[in-house]
Amino acid sequence: MIIGTLRVAYEQGLAEVTLEARVSNFIAQRLYDKYGFNEVGIRKNYYADNREDAVIMTTDPIRTASYREKFASLQETFLARYGDIRIEI
Question: What is the pLDDT of residue 86?
Fold first, then answer.
C-alpha cells in the first residue's frame, strides 16, 4: 500500500506525502521511516477510541532525484522478495 500510494502521489504531481501513526505503533513508524517518512509533529488525542496521540510523518520531496533513487531501490527489494503483487477490486 505504501508503494502504491507513493506511486500515485508521484503520478499526480504531488510534492510530498503525509500520514499519521499511533505514537505506540513503533513497527509502523519504522516501516514509514524506511520509505522516507520523517516525524514532523504530534496530533494530540487524535484517535477517538483511546485518545492516543498520533505521530505526523511526511516524506522528503518525492520529486527529487535522491528520493526517486531511494524509492526505486525499495521497490526493487520489495519485488525481489514478494513479486509483483496485483490486487483486483
Answer: 67
Q: What is the pLDDT of residue 88?
A: 59
Cell triple for 82:
514478494
Closest by CA position to 23, among listed 3, 59, 58, 51: 51
CATH number at residue 52: 3.40.630.30
- pLDDT of 85 reads 72
**What pLDDT does 83 receive?**
83
**Residues involved in catalysis:** 20, 32
The Cα 23–Cα 53 span in angstroms is 6
Question: What's the number of domains the chain is made of?
Answer: 1
Range of the domain at 14: 2-77
